[in-house]
Specification:
heterodimer, A: mainly alpha, MetI-like fold, 14 helices, globular, B: mainly alpha
Chain lengths: 318, 279
């Protein structure tokens, strides 16, 4: 058991290190701006005096390492600064947006994970048959599609031609859960189509990998049905890579929503990031990149820890 | 050489339908992008008609949001979007393969340093990272190519290093070392040829990734800038037509999808061929 704790602690330490370096990169990235923030906001026409005064107001006259420490300290206290574009508190802006993004990602996950597992197990069961080959071509195709292509096809069919779901997912906090679900259905379906293929292929591959092992041979010789062999004997041992790929896809769902959110005008964090990038609203870009990066790193860390914890050899040491 | 070409022809004949389909599609794209000015009926940027004209007549696929010919822009888009994605992938490979093979051949602190840098770069989601950097440095074609190539070279580095680590411990590399060959010889003449198959397959996959990535950035309005004809931004510019159940905006998106599907089919076949996988 000690060994597991040590490995998990090691991973957590590594994760913290990565978070630190990433925050440093995000901070320094903005430092490298030609001129500085004060110049960028006030424009070329501003007099040197105004720029200097504004610089003082922003705290830009301090050396870089002090500003970095201040920035990180404020973030740890939950203060992300104010937006340059509209002067609003960034933490308020991000809170609502992050909630929306997580909501969309969870709906997509609830639909896609069971689907992917089911298709993967079926493909492993009927491997090399016509079902497997068809699924292989379909998933290879859907992996290759750009997200906006999938999104617009869904809009064309389900929203414009058949009118089942609304094509614009403008949600607001006052909506009921049912209304919200209806609004996010199309973006969630788009994300589902994008991630199912990958998860399904991994599920199939990790089950098939195991089928050559002696204990599966044994189960076959005992006369068990192929379905039972795969679900009861192979699946539990294939769980580690499957869990891993599921968590990685969840990370993708949260980070990869940017394009989908823009297509459906969904007020999530990705949309906020893209808007702020085009407005060059640096504090908001910094804050939302940091939130995205943290989520991504934390989920990757979870995948690592889970795959350590689901490894039977580590759980039951001799 | 004739032996080699005979084997090639036989392999191509025996390739599955999906791979044949993929190769034909790729060939068509290459031809179109080379001969764009000859094939396209109008110029890339010229406004030739009213906005959103329907299909048919002088404009086979209608006109876009500014009244430019859709077909011509689709054809030029092949040149711009595919060309830039190709250059970016080449650059990413040049960086990734050279550093990856060096790290594997030299080992020691250089290997440690490069591997840790790559770990950190890969820990940040690449779309978010490139949005951040492009905000700072500005979205010019050169910046776009450099940023994406550097971010993508991390994946190439990982693969090249992983493959090469297994090769540098082989006897023939040891022999070359004892013979007194230099580092450059060992990397290019001993390690690289043996690392080729996985790297070639990876090139196809990386190209798809970069291609989709640039299209996504352009779609968000942060990639290739107007008036360059580019498939991602063409989807964005004409997206409103979708609500009138006009499929025109799906054409550039479909052009992107078709090429990535084609490349993936060919890579899939190539991987099965070279790894000897029958499963």
């Amino acid at each position: 058991m000690d060994k597991i704790l040590k490995m998990v602690a090691q991973r957590l330490g590594l994760g913290l290190m990565t978070l630190f370096v990433v925050s440093l990169i995000i901070f320094l990235g903005v430092e490298l701006l030609p001129g500085d923030l004060a110049q960028a906001i006030l424009g070329q026409a501003a007099t040197p005096e105004t720029v200097a005064a504004f610089r003082k107001e922003l705290g830009l006259d301090q050396p870089a390492y002090i500003r970095y420490l201040d920035w990180v300290g404020d973030i740890l206290k939950g203060d992300l600064g104010v937006s340059l574009a509209n002067g609003r508190e960034i933490s308020e802006l991000i809170e609502v947006r992050l909630y929306n993004t997580l909501f969309l990602a969870s709906v997509a996950a609830v639909i896609s994970v069971p689907l992917a597992l089911m298709f993967g197990i079926l493909a492993a069961l009927y491997r090399n048959g016509w079902y497997d080959r068809a699924i292989n071509i379909i998933t290879l195709t859907s992996i290759s599609f750009p997200e906006f292509f999938v999104a617009y096809i869904l809009i064309l069919w389900l929203a414009v031609n058949w009118g089942i779901f609304p094509s614009i997912s403008n949600v607001d906090p006052s909506m009921s859960l049912v209304d919200r679900l209806e609004r996010v259905m199309l973006p969630a379906l788009t994300l589902t189509l994008v991630v199912v293929a990958h998860m399904m292929r991994m599920t199939r591959a990790s089950i098939i990998n195991l089928l050559a092992s002696p204990y599966i041979e044994m189960a076959k010789l005992k006369g068990l049905s192929p379905g039972r062999i795969i679900v009861v004997h192979a699946l539990p041992n294939a769980l580690a890579p499957i869990i891993n790929v599921i968590v990685l896809n969840l990370a993708y769902l949260i980070v990869g929503v940017v394009v989908v959110e823009v297509v459906f005008v969904y007020p999530g964090l990705g949309q906020l990031l893209v808007d702020s990038v085009s407005k060059r609203d640096m504090p908001v870009v910094q804050a939302s990149s940091l939130v995205f990066a943290c989520t991504f790193i934390l989920l990757n860390l979870t995948a690592d820890v889970l795959s350590i914890l689901s490894n039977p050899r580590l759980l039951h040491p001799r | 050489m004739s032996d080699f070409s005979r084997v090639m022809v036989r392999e191509l004949k025996n390739s599955p339908m999906t791979a044949k389909f993929g190769m034909i599609v790729i060939l068509v794209y290459v031809v179109v992008s080379f001969f764009a000015p000859i094939i396209a009926p109008f110029s890339e940027t010229e406004i030739v008609g009213a906005e959103y004209e329907p299909w048919g007549g002088a404009f086979l696929l209608g006109t876009d949001n500014l009244g430019r010919d859709m077909l011509s822009r689709l054809i030029y888009g092949a040149r711009n979007t595919v060309g830039i994605a190709f250059v970016t992938t080449m650059l990413a490979f040049a960086i990734g393969v050279v550093t990856g093979l060096l790290a594997a051949a030299l080992g020691g602190w250089l290997d440690q340093l490069l591997s840790r840098i790559v770990d950190v770069l890969m820990a940040i989601p690449s779309l978010i990272f490139s949005l951040l950097i492009l905000t700072v440095v500005g979205t010019s074609v050169i910046n776009l190519i450099l940023v994406i190539a550097i971010l993508d070279s991390t994946r190439v580095f990982r693969l090249a290093r992983a493959v090469a680590v297994n090769i540098v411990v082989m006897d023939f590399v040891e022999v070359a070392r004892l013979r007194g060959e230099g580092l450059w010889w060992i990397i290019t003449k001993e390690v690289l040829p043996n690392a080729m198959p996985p790297l070639v397959a990876e090139f196809g996959l990386r190209f798809c990734f970069v291609f989709l990535f640039i299209s996504a950035l352009s779609f968000l309005g942060l990639g290739l800038q107007p008036p360059t004809a580019d498939w991602g931004s063409m989807v964005r510019d004409n997206a409103t037509l979708i609500t009138f159940s006009d499929i025109t905006p799906l054409l550039p998106a479909g052009a992107i999808a078709l090429l990535t599907v084609a490349v993936n089919f060919v890579v899939d076949w190539f991987l099965q061929k070279t790894s000897g996988l029958k499963e």
